Amino acid sequence: MKKIFKYITLSFFGISVISCSDETVLDLSPINNISLGDAFSSPSLIESSVNGMYNAAAIGQYNSTNPNAGRGYIWGAAFVQQGDNRGEDVVNVATFYQLTYTATYDPTTANNVYYWVDGYRLINRANLVIEGVTTAAEAGIITQDVADDYIGQAKFLRAITHFELLNFFARPYNFSAGASHPGVPYREVGIDTQAEIDSEIVLGRNTVAEVYAKVLQDLDDAESLITNTSLTKASANAAVAFKTRVYLHMRDWDGVIAEGNKLAGEYTLEDSPNGPFLDSYGNSESIFSLTQAATMNPGVNAALASQYNRRRLVAISPIIWRDPSWLADDLRREDNSTETEVGTGMVFTAGGAKFTLKYKDGVNYTDASPVIRYAEVLLNMAEAQARKAAPDLGASLALLNQVRNRSLADPDTQAYVAGDFANAGELVGAILKERRIEFLMEGRRWSDIHRLQGDDLQPINGIPQKVANGTPAAELYTLGTPYDGPYGVPAVPYADFKFLWPIPQIEVNANPTLAEQQNPGW
Length: 522
Hints:
- With 522 residues, the chain is mostly helical.
- Helix content is 40%, strand content 7%.
- Helix 5 (144-169) packs antiparallel against helix 7.
């Protein structure tokens, strides 16, 4: 008899250890099933274990017993779909995301349950990789340089996943003095024995400040350790880019700028706003994306090109479509679709409603999941320049125009100029609107809604009201005036307990400490 590590659904943050026969295996990759004792015993098996960590990030397990049968939780597609549907710039057409879209979830709702469960499954895989690779290097199985690269990649995934969970299950950084309010548990132990479960199961939530500190430390380590430079695995540059996102949420404007400046000359924006999506694996601005392949993606129930393209489960909302800041001839409105073909633009029309065409392959669903690209770094820096203690509005405006101008039909006459903004607040408002347009259908809206609660320049109160669940009528997309109704999904005030997702019921049932730390109201 030997102890092995196995992923199951109804257990302490989605994992458990059981005793079983020697034939029971650790599922560390979609192809090779190997025992935990062997997983880090050779360079090839270590590489397979690391690849399995990325497979867990791209596909997840969801409610299946098959570790390769998930629905894109958490970084393969779910972060896009859930981040979009929590905001007002999309419309949920069917029932697939209705509970997320209408804020009618509860502690048993699959959307929030498996965001948490698959998130911590991925974190545990990352922790196992860190521990296994460290031991392998000490034993001389791999060199320390190779080990450092793998450890850095695992720390990157551990950091960004904790940060993502924080934005759904905890109040934003500025909610309390010193961010001392409850965050999420920051897990740094790879669980593969009963003793480790017994010790970890009593641990509760770290404060938000503690989680941010650990995220930044892991990202700093990732930056210093990773030598990989490929797009679809963590890189040092991806760690830097993600730090601009983290510092933005912390309202550390100087931190955003310092990190963003490190990437100067490393990436360039594509000439066309469609460029990053025409070739999602070979463009000049994507910094970190996850592979989706015909033989290895979340499939019809999760792949982005399935959900947003072929199945048309989520439409662009008339709220953002008719916003006057989005110019009528903006290239991001390009729509060359017909009644039978979606075309090659950035938008297509079906039944009168508007849908994104950022995800092109509606047959094999091979479009990469775009986790972070350089356009976001530039807009993060633009906002920070306008908000810092001594605002540099000129630098902010230049960064904003750098992103926006490539989408304009006539930049010479349509680009923003200093006289368009009376103060820093108005410029920040334009930057935030540009984020909504530029990252539409990339899952970024919820992140901004979350961090802008109680903001001093552009505050949002809770989750804005939305167009009714279902396919919007064609006439609702008529340009010329801002959208002012009808609405069908009421706003959720920031003070409402439903602003946050509840910690899943299966988690509080298993963890007595977290049972006492459930989000209020749930």
